C-alpha cells in the first residue's frame, strides 16, 4: 500500500468510527507503530484529525472537514429526496442543465428520468452513470481528475470545459451556507467548479438540506446573491426563513 493510500484508509477509518487507536490501525494496515504515528501526524497537520494519546479523533469543527461520498448519501436522505423532487419540477423538457456533484443533486437526477430532450452536464460520475434517463436525454461529463472516494471530476480540464458552456439552469450544492458569507465548500478544487457552474447558467438554484444553514466551510463559492432561488427542506428554522424573506431571497421548502 502506497503512503497516500494508507493515509486515506486511516482517514476513512477515523471518519467512520470517530476515532481510532494506533493498535487498531496497525492491525488494519499491517504497518509499524512508527509508520502509523507518522501518518497520524501528517493527517493532524491537515486539520482533519486531532492527535490523542494512543491515536486520533476526527476534527468535526474544522472548516475543511468533509464526509465521504458514501456518508453524504445517507445523511438527511428523506429531506434530500424531497428536495430532489421539488427541484426536478423546475425542469422543462428540452432544457440544458448543470447538475453539480453531491448527494442532493443525485436525488434531482433520479427525478429527471421521465423528462425528454434534456442536456445534462455534470462532474459527478454517479449522476452520469447510475441513472437511466430517457433515451432522448444527452448526458455530458466535464472530464477532469477523479477525487478518490468522492466520484467527482475536478481540476483544470473540468474548469476549462465549464468555461465553454451555457445552460438554461444549474443546480448547485455545497457543504455550508451562511447568509452573510455565502456558499462555502470544504475543498478548493470543487469550490472553483461550483463558481464556474453558476456563471454558466441563466438561472441558478441552490439545493441544500436544512443542516447546512448557519455554517461555513473552508473555500468560498459565491455570495447568496449569485442564486436565483434556494430549494431546501421544511426543517429550515423559522429564523433562517425570516432572514431569507428579509433579504428578498426566493426559497422553496420541500
Task: Outline the structure in words.
The protein is built from ten helices and 15 strands. The relative contact order is 0.12. The chain has a seven-stranded parallel β-sheet with strand order 6-5-4-9-12-14-15, with helices on both faces. It has a three-stranded antiparallel β-sheet with strand order 1-3-2. With 254 residues, the chain is of the alpha/beta class. The model has no long low-confidence stretch (mean pLDDT 90). 38% of the residues lie in helices and 24% in strands. A hairpin with a 3-residue loop joins strand 10 and strand 11.
Would you give the CATH topology of the largest domain? Rossmann fold
Total helices: the number is: 10
> What is the N-to-C order of secondary-structure elements (H for helix, E for strand)?
HEHHEEHHEHEHEEEHEEEHEEEHE
The first-level CATH class name of the largest domain: Alpha Beta
Our measurement of the CA-to-CA distance between the termini, rounded to an integer number of angstroms, reads 45 Å
What ranges have pLDDT less than 50 throughout 5 or more consecutive residues? none
Q: What count of structural domains?
A: 2
Mean pLDDT over the full residue set: 90
Give the CA-based shape: globular
Structural class: alpha/beta
Radius of gyration: 19 Å
